[in-house]
Amino acid sequence: MSEYTLMLKDSPVMTLDIDESARGAKSVAEIHDLEKAPLSIWNERIARMRDVDFAGLFNRWWNGRIIPSSRIGVQRSLREIGASTTSELSLKSMALSLSDQYWLKPAASDARWEDVNFFENDFDDEIGRILANAGLGGDASPLSPSATVDGNLPKRWIVGENGGRYLLKAGSGALKQEPFNEAAATALYEHLLEEGEYVPYRVVRGEWSWMSSCPCMADASHSFVDARSVFYSIIENGGSPDKVGMVRALEALGIHGAEAAIDKMLVCDFLLGNIDRHMGNFGAIMNSDTGEYEGMAPIFDSGLSLLCGIEDFPRDTLELNANPFAPRQATQLAMVRDFSWLDSAKLSGVADIVCDIVRDCPSRYMDSERANFLHAFVESNAAAVIAAANCAPGAGMDAILDRAEKIESVFAVAMRKKIGGTVFPFSGGASPKTAADCRPMRQPIAGKGPRNRLEESPSTRADKRESAGLVASASAAPTRTQSHDKASHD
After folding, report:
1. Pairing outcome for strands 202-205 and 471-472
2. Is residue 366 located within the same domain as residue 248?
3. Domain boundaries, position 430
4. Which of 208, 336, 381, 486 falls 20 to 30 Å from 423 in CA-CA distance?
5. pTM of the predicted protein model
6. Is 17 within a domain?
7. Tens digit of each residue's pLDDT (9 = 90 or more) over 206-234
């Protein structure tokens, strides 16, 4: 058992007794300044509670900060690094992150924020290389922000040639499509949104695989605060996330335009078929010097989209889940109230924009048949978005479900025209009657798509990607010539 102080820069928040081999604190030795604590540890809701288990609240925050044990290849990486758990690894790095300005200061340490933070100081990248399944082993400094990056995909932080911090993230499964999806999503956002409303990604060549690269959205004075922490700052734990409650929680923090930003995110997620917009994959930006919330975080992490989890493709049935407010894609789109920002004319070209990038994924599963199906899928989603924009949102869940049924009907008709066969928008053909009936969309599909009308050689497509800045060769990747590297969030 060792004593650590949770710090916000150089301000102590609380001192805890932490079991270094376990996943968190056993007890709180002293409270210093709760007003500087992470939002999930101290907020309006917790302030109303009589008995507060601060050690338990810290552990919940801590478990969302460290690398999950489910990370691909993490156990092998830990053995190579010489750490027994991901918690121990993060403690060796003083829990320093590139998402915020919190860290854990050992009791005997005289370290200062300015000397140890990764926004302004270099670090050894070998830990990151090992965690991303690209390291060679050997001695490595434990001080790395790669030790505090959440998520299941192999990833690491680097410092680019311009001194910026970038997150490199690999793909998964046989397809390993996620890096290309991130670049395709960026192209979509550039087409529909304003600069600053999204984090830009591009594809780079890693040591062993293609990876996505994106700049860090935080800096030495600005933190990312996830939507889960925001939502449960005013909503009782156990309540399911809902859009109305999410907007209310964001507005309570002084964030203006929250619903408009969420509406844009939901529309884009529907177009891409993103199934991973959980409460950790969007949020707000806080000024850690003033404690003020300055706005919504830009859209990031759109990799788990465009049917990338389906290897044998196409199948007779296609199931798409959704997050964070409903388990059905169409139900979330039906919750969007404001489409005034959307130029519907631009939707006619989104399938070309997205699929022209994704079909460069080198997996053997990304054949012309799959690319054609994806093209039809995105075009059909665009048709459904136009239908939603032309359909009054109404009020209450019944109105949302009626709207969702119309959206799925438009999608089904569009897909049937493009690929043939029969497409049913609901499981078993039955429409949901209540929110509890909103099951994942199950679509029996038959037929094959037309020949790809965008036939080009792989080299021609790669040249176009590189000229657009969405794909970089290994030599053009944002790397540093010295032995120190850094990167981004998620």
Report:
1. parallel
2. yes
3. 222-444
4. 336
5. 0.85
6. yes
7. 878 899 999 999 999 999 999 999 999 99
